[in-house]
């Protein structure tokens, strides 16, 4: 990214020509018919070269790409200096320019492999040791609550990156969970969230984990204060807070001000972005649920993917390939969204997690240099676990008017092989069938043949599937904990590569600020109608309606 817009690169213009020349007409069925080697040409197998074994097959052949397109997309990545920016990230250069920060989530799972000079990187292992010690104390029962009972419930209070990662990963790794340790996650400022959670807790046996990088986030601090009040209503003595509240934060002053002792604080650093923080102390709830050893395996799985991203030529580099193909749909086909479709119940929060991961990172309309882009940036991320999605939104994906890139994800082995894996085989038959249907569709002739000569034209037409729908398959293999680490890192780096090509800063989130400021102003005006000032007529009307109708 050299002060240019992505659309200025010669390869971008070449891609536009390729699209105009044939891609508006291309069909996958023809591409497969013309080339019997298409699957082997466009699929890549990932085998980790460091840490525990992870293998993964990423089949890119059911995408609307040809060899010239892929070559040109990789040319674009080179022109945008993806490799140079990747190396800058790993070296700890301040690539988050607006906040003048390094971007070093990779340092959290590095285990002294890459040399990283940034201050704090050398403190990572001490924090991991602290997490290990604490996790083992709680899980073994050595850590006692204020009445001498062991902890059997944890409540993580955090929002955004301080919530979504722990929620997603504790679900993804549930097979390894300590089943007699209940884990709850409170994020929403809606009092219902904390109230319903506290109903499930006993103050004598509950540990609250206050997770906030800044320790100033309104939702988190308000929920934490409510939890502390609820706890003290039973415990009475503030000294007992030390046994039941710990903090995950970069802000020591605010943490100690809240009443949590520094020894119960797990540090991280400003170079850990909120949405990239599950690998840091923010992952404490994960470590508590699955055990420290498994948490470390998760980190090692991610590190293996970091190594792959750092060292593999672009042609075989999975995050790069997924990024450029995503960009091809986003910027040339005009696709607006990307659906993440894990055929794995344990990954049912995967799309929720990457809504923040991708959209907060790449939802930007100006480049790092302040120029307005003249192309689309980050896609809208959505999705649900298969096969549930098939019974809700797949109709539109198959026969609607939109082109929706889809990432199908599945593990080869189930943790629950009930009835000799009957369920898993049915699940996977759907996992294989849906992309096949998307790619090859069904022609009018085929439908006519099936229905016979007496079928009405309307019925025939309603059963036609276009042949241009697309899918990609990253498939994670067991064992799950390392695979999950690798899978998350794969998407993190995909987001990074796209951000570099679009020339945007993927590591700030200025767009969330304005709403927070306005809410603060409105909060001070909610008491009396005469205080409501400085708004448009719609906002004023809504607030007045609320003031007139509330029952408190
Ligand atoms: O929504 C904005 C944001 O800053 C996210 O980037 C972050 O993950 C979240 O709020 C929570 O922030 P904190 O960890 O500082 O409470």
Automatic annotation (TrEMBL):
GO CC annotation, single: cytosol
Signal peptide: none
A Pfam entry, by short name: PGI
Keyword field: Gluconeogenesis, Glycolysis, Isomerase
This enzyme's EC code(s): 5.3.1.9
GO biological process terms held by the UniProt record: gluconeogenesis; glucose 6-phosphate metabolic process; glycolytic process
Taxonomy, superkingdom: Eukaryota
Pathway: Carbohydrate degradation; glycolysis; D-glyceraldehyde 3-phosphate and glycerone phosphate from D-glucose: step 2/4
UniProt xrefs under InterPro entries: G6P_Isomerase, G6P_Isomerase_C, Phosphoglucose_isomerase_CS, SIS_dom_sf, SIS_PGI_1, SIS_PGI_2
Enzymatic reactions: alpha-D-glucose 6-phosphate = beta-D-fructose 6-phosphate
Record bears the keyword Lyase: no
A GO molecular-function annotation: carbohydrate derivative binding
Known role: In the cytoplasm, catalyzes the conversion of glucose-6-phosphate to fructose-6-phosphate, the second step in glycolysis, and the reverse reaction during gluconeogenesis.
HAMAP family the record matches: G6P_isomerase (MF_00473)
NCBIfam families the record matches: PRK00179.1 (NF001211)
Family: Belongs to the GPI family.
Protein name as catalogued: Glucose-6-phosphate isomerase
Species assigned in the record: Hebeloma cylindrosporum
């Amino acid at each position: 990214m050299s002060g240019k817009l992505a659309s200025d690169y010669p390869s971008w213009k070449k891609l536009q020509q390729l699209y105009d020349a044939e891609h508006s007409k291309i069909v996958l069925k023809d591409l497969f018919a013309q080339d019997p080697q298409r699957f082997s040409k466009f699929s890549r197998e990932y085998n980790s070269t460091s840490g525990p074994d992870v293998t993964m097959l990423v089949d890119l052949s059911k995408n609307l790409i040809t060899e010239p397109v892929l070559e040109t997309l990789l040319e674009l990545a080179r022109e945008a200096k993806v490799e140079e920016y990747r190396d800058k990230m790993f070296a700890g250069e301040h690539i988050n320019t607006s906040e003048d920060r390094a971007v070093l989530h990779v340092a959290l799972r590095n285990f002294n492999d890459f040399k990283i000079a940034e201050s704090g990187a050398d403190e990572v292992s001490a924090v991991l040791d602290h997490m290990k010690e604490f996790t083992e104390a709680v899980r073994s029962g050595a850590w006692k609550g204020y009445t001498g009972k062991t902890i059997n419930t944890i409540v993580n209070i955090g929002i955004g990156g301080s919530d979504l990662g722990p929620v997603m990963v504790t679900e993804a790794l549930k097979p390894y969970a300590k089943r007699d340790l209940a884990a709850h996650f409170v994020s929403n400022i809606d009092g219902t969230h904390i109230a319903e959670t506290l109903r499930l807790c006993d103050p004598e046996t509950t540990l609250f984990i206050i997770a906030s990088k800044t320790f100033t986030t309104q939702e988190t601090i308000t929920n934490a204060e409510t939890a502390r009040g609820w706890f003290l209503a039973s415990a009475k003595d503030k000294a007992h807070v030390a046994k039941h509240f710990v903090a995950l934060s970069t802000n020591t002053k605010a943490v100690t001000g809240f009443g949590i002792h520094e020894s119960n604080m797990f540090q991280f650093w400003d170079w850990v972005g909120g949405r990239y923080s599950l690998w840091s102390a923010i992952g404490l709830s994960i470590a508590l649920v699955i055990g420290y050893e498994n948490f470390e395996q998760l980190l090692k799985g991610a590190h293996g993917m970091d190594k792959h991203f750092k060292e593999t030529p672009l042609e075989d580099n999975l995050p790069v390939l997924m990024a450029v193909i995503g960009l091809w749909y986003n910027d040339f086909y005009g696709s607006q969204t990307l659906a993440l479709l894990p055929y794995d119940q344990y990954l049912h929060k995967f799309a929720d997690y990457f809504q923040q991961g991708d959209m907060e990172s790449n939802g930007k309309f100006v480049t790092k240099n302040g120029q307005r882009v003249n192309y689309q940036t980050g896609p809208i991320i959505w999705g649900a676990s298969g096969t549930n999605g098939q019974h809700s939104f797949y109709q539109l994906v198959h026969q609607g008017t939109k082109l929706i890139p889809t990432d199908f994800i599945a593990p080869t082995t189930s943790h629950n092989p009930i009835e000799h894996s009957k369920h898993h085989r049915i699940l996977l038959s759907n996992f294989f069938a849906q992309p096949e249907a998307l790619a090859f569709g069904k022609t009018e002739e085929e439908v006519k043949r099936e229905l016979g000569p007496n079928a009405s034209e309307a019925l025939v037409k309603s059963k036609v599937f276009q042949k241009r729908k697309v899918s990609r398959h990253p498939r994670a293999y067991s064992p799950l904990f390392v695979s999950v680490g690798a899978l998350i890192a794969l998407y993190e780096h995909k987001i990074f590569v796209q951000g570099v090509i679009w020339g945007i800063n993927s590591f700030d989130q200025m767009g969330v600020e304005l709403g927070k400021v306005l809410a603060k102003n409105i909060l001070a005006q909610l008491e009396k109608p005469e205080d409501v000032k400085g708004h448009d007529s719609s906002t004023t009307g809504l607030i007045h309606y609320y003031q007139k109708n509330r029952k408190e």
